[in-house]
Amino acid sequence: MEKFTSLTGVAAPLAIRNVDTDMIIPKQYLKTIKRTGLGKGLFSEMRYNEDGSENPDFVLNKPAYRHAQILVAEDNFGCGSSREHAPWALLDFGIRCVISTSFADIFYNNCFKNGILPIVVSPEELAKLMDDAERGANATLSVDLESQEIRGPDGGVIHFDIDPFRKHCLINGLDDIGLSLQKADKITAFEKQEHAAHPWL
Questions:
Q1: Is there a contact between 7 and 96 (Cβ–Cβ < 8 Å)?
Q2: Is the pLDDT higher at 181 or at 108?
Q3: In angstroms, what CA-CA distances link 191 with 3, 85, 181, 182, 198?
Q4: DSSP string spanning the chain?
């Protein structure tokens, strides 16, 4: 997967609590097993009207946020069913980082496996970041994973915590397959040993 080291970009404010995975990517988009093409379905029930036209009031349809790479969201983001299509849709749209006060566990874990950085901040810090995001494209946020810092447009710095192993995986672009391939030599050696000991298998 693509490495995540640092990111500077527009942050879109999504001031909604308990955004579940069906809101992120509705069930009708779950027929595919491809990770690409799901960006068009991201938040589709809020992004589009019944006739298929864009809802101009939804944040990602506003000119300032059409190319947002960071999402600042309210509490309990990613709750609901455990669909990996949710981080796929965010990533396909261009979102590489989601900031909230809390995440549902399965969604949180799926983000790391797909190259998205989920950051947990305090309610006070979220209020400040939400205010920054509401300023539009003129107020970008900078996220530095190495130093574990978020820098706002006014120069303020917020430090965030992250599990060291997950940090290592994101910085090096290692998903589950990538982690396994790091041990390819040992796997090959084990297979040769097993074949020599049990040639009939």
A1: yes
A2: 108
A3: 30, 34, 14, 16, 10
A4: ----SEEEEEEEEE--SS-BHHHHS-GGGTT---SSSGGGGTTHHHHB-TTS-B-TTSGGGSGGGTT--EEEE-SSBTBSS--THHHHHHHHHT--EEEES-B-HHHHHHHHHTT-EEEE--HHHHHHHHHHHTTGGGSEEEEETTTTEEE-TTS-EEE----HHHHHHHHHT--HHHHHHTTHHHHHHHHHHHHHH-TT-
Q: pLDDT tens digit string along 47-80?
A: 999 999 999 999 999 999 999 999 999 999 999 9
Half-sphere exposure of 101 (CA within 13 A, CB side): 16
Q: Give the number of C-alpha atoms closer than 13 A to the C-alpha of residue 18, restricted to the C-beta side.
A: 1
Cβ atoms within 10 Å of 155's Cβ, excluding its own: 6
Q: Which residues partner with 77 through β-bridges?
A: 103
**Cβ 69 vs Cβ 95: under 8 Å:** yes
Amino acid at position 18, single letter: N
Sheet holding 140-144, edge to edge: 117-120, 97-100, 70-73, 6-14, 140-144, 149-151, 157-159
Tokens found for residue 189: 């050696």
- Calpha distance 20→82 (Å, rounded): 10
pLDDT tens, position by position, 130-174: 999 999 988 899 999 999 999 999 999 999 999 999 999 999 998
Q: CA–CA separation, 162 vs 123, rounded Å? A: 17
